[in-house]
Write a structure and sequence with these properties.
The complex is a heterodimer of chains A (199) and B (420). Chain A is mostly helical and 199 residues long. Chain A contains 7 helices and 2 strands; from the N terminus they run H-H-H-H-E-E-H-H-H. In chain A, helix 3 packs parallel to helix 6 and helix 4 runs antiparallel to helix 6. Chain B is an all-alpha fold. Classes of the chains: A mainly alpha (199), B mainly alpha (420). At the A-B interface, helix 2, helix 3, helix 4, helix 6 and helix 7 of A face helix 1, helix 2, helix 3, helix 4 and helix 7 of B.
Chain lengths: 199, 420
């Protein structure tokens, strides 16, 4: 398929899904299903983190007590960090927890803050879609080369998290736009999402 | 056209567009204009998976959040109270510094320690205004102590040995704590606050309460300084140990709470790493275009001495520090400034300490220092009240900054001692 056609179709899909999601949210439908997906997402992140801790400790033990080590453990841990970073960023989009500068918006009157949020969410969705395209091109190039990262794992398989994360961020940003989501006052602080997550 | 897009993006950034999208898109635009395939931006992102140092970031962050949600802050204050009999203000400074070193993200300290210390400070008779300033300033005090995340991040971005940075931060960090402690002690004397007796029995009982947590800094720092374990391994050990102690032994954190803590900490990690990923493409482009070199030449036209340069650097970084949080400031500014500073003969390790001290102060600088807002939220006080409350602390820290900047030996003494 022609690549610009592919990106158009992908973009339309992302917009449609975001609208659908926002619509269902408003009518409070399928919320059990969405909660399941959310648990799945956090579960995957927890699994990666557990793997990172486990591998790290295992390596210390192997090196210091058995004078050996797993050759693939180090590159695997470094890639887990890449994946954790990407998935963490996707999660942070849903909770509006991304680091920003934001000097002016506090000074805006309330009705203009709504406009400001809408502009920011749209711009974020467009920008991350473009970044997703850049990342997808890397993956398809890499797939042609067929480089091996470590073991028998091909590099492109590990890189796939980059475009996936950017397209998901784009999608979540649109959901934020359509549900007119607003950052909680606890944004960027510890209390922030604890309650939300424990619901 | 290109300039227009870049200006638009910067404007959007000032209105709250996530920083990573701004940096990433500018990189895409610049690469596109230079007729380089935009996948180069993604190539830089993938280099995140090349660094063993970055592995430490999720691990230390997770451990830090775990401590924050447990009753470790409580035990830390009890222990510091027994060890440092200079009044509660001194205790607050010391315990916050230690806590920040291990949690790295400064908002966490004010939230976790502030709620605990504020009522105690009021009960001991300190003035409210002083308390507010003290806890706001304490929120970022420990950044120079290992294994703080900003130190690790600076080491990565500036390609400076992390072992040297961990040594270099010690004395300036202690210096800052001592300066503020003297002020806190003096204020305590004026308010006539009670002071704890220094007794072996108190220390023994505090050590017993915190018995499982005390070994951690010793294991981690001892392991790193002796070269027995790497920073990455120390981070894995810290996370595993924190899980064991807080979940299994003390049971401060229940298994049900764990997913929330994982999600919370990994959102911060994701937030930092994705900025790093997007900024790498941009800084690579700027370095290829020799922007830092041009900046250096331009600076050398107007500035001849290293000392004037350092003063300008301080001013510049204070502005950056009150606009940006410490992580993005490090990621964006260090690659551009480090070559310029090297051109003026500033040691890269010393530069790191200057950077971090500046950014730490930026946290309390009005109008937009982050700590001011977090304190305002936490203690339910208007931000304006915090502006005035933090002024004495701000002035003391600025004076200390000048000392740290102009006496490199404070930062480099230990590095040279060990290295040479």
């Amino acid at each position: 398929m022609n690549s610009s056609l592919f990106y158009t179709v992908l973009g339309v899909f992302i917009v449609l899904f975001a609208i659908l999601r926002a619509f269902l949210d408003r009518r409070n439908q399928l919320s059990g299903w969405f909660r399941f997906l959310h648990h799945l997402e956090v579960g995957l992140i927890a699994l990666l983190l557990a793997g990172l801790v486990g591998l790290g400790v295992l390596q210390i033990l192997l090196r210091n007590f058995f004078q050996s080590g797993l050759l693939w453990a180090d590159p695997l841990m470094r890639h887990i960090v890449l994946w954790l970073g990407c998935l963490g960023a996707v999660l942070a989009t849903g909770y509006l927890r991304h680091i920003n500068i934001d000097v002016f918006s506090r000074a805006l009157p309330r009705h203009l803050q709504k406009v400001q949020r809408a502009v920011i969410y749209t711009a974020t969705a467009v920008a991350t879609f473009v970044l997703g395209i850049a990342a997808l091109r890397l993956v398809s190039d890499e797939r042609e080369f067929g480089d091996i990262a470590f073991g028998s794992l091909q590099t492109w398989v590990l890189q796939i998290v980059l475009p996936v994360a950017f397209f998901l961020i784009s999608y979540r940003s649109l959901v934020n736009l359509f549900t007119a989501r607003q950052a909680p006052p606890t944004e960027g602080t510890l209390d922030g999402t604890m309650e939300t997550l424990q619901k | 056209m290109i300039a227009l897009i870049v200006i638009l993006l910067i404007l959007l950034a000032l209105f709250g567009m996530p920083l990573f999208t701004v940096l990433g898109t500018i990189a895409v635009v610049l690469f596109h204009r230079a007729e380089i395939d935009i996948s180069s931006v993604a190539v830089s992102m993938y280099t995140l998976a090349n660094s063993p140092l970055l592995v430490a970031i999720p691990l230390f962050t997770f451990a830090g959040y775990l401590f924050a949600y447990s009753r470790a802050p409580d035990r830390l204050v009890t222990l510091s109270r027994a060890l440092f009999p200079g009044g509660l203000a001194v205790v607050a400074l010391v315990s916050c510094a230690v806590f920040t070193a291990f949690t790295g993200a400064s908002g966490v300290t004010i939230i976790a320690m502030g709620g605990l210390l504020m009522p105690a400070l009021i009960k001991d008779g300190y003035q409210k205004r002083f308390n507010l300033g003290l806890l706001t300033a304490s929120g970022s005090l420990g950044l120079l102590f290992p294994p703080s995340l900003p130190l690790i991040l600076y080491g990565y971005v500036a390609a400076v040995s992390i072992d040297q940075l961990f040594l270099a931060g010690l004395l300036p960090g202690i210096f800052l704590v001592v300066v503020l402690s003297i002020y806190g002690y003096w204020q305590g004397q004026r308010a006539g606050v009670p002071r704890e007796r220094w007794s072996l029995r108190n220390i023994a009982s505090a050590l017993r309460t915190a018995g499982w947590e005390v070994p951690l800094p010793i294991i981690v720092l001892g392991g790193i300084y002796s070269g027995f374990i790497t920073v990455m391994e120390a981070a894995a050990l810290t996370a595993a140990y924190a899980l064991l102690v807080e979940v299994v032994i003390y049971r401060d954190v229940s298994l049900r709470q764990l997913p929330g803590i994982v999600a919370e900490s990994m959102m911060l990690v994701g937030g930092i790493l994705i900025i790093l990923a997007c900024a790498l493409g941009l800084t690579n482009f700027l370095i290829d275009a020799e922007v830092p070199m041009q900046l250096l030449e331009w600076m050398q036209h107007y500035v001849s001495s290293k000392y004037t340069f350092l003063l300008l650097l301080n001013l510049f970084l204070l502005v950056v520090g009150c606009l940006m949080d410490i992580f993005s400031a490090l990621i964006v500014v260090v690659p551009l400034i480090a070559p310029v500073a090297a051109g003026f003969g500033v040691d890269p390790v010393h530069l790191g300490i200057i950077f971090l001290t500046n950014l730490e102060i930026g946290y309390l600088t009005p109008p937009v220092g982050l700590n001011l807002f977090i304190s305002s939220y936490r203690f339910n006080e208007p931000v304006i009240a915090l502006y005035s409350a933090s002024v004495p602390f701000l002035l003391l820290l600025l004076a200390s900054l000048l000392v740290i900047t102009y006496i490199p030996a404070i930062s480099l003494f230990l590095v040279n001692l060990v290295g040479g």
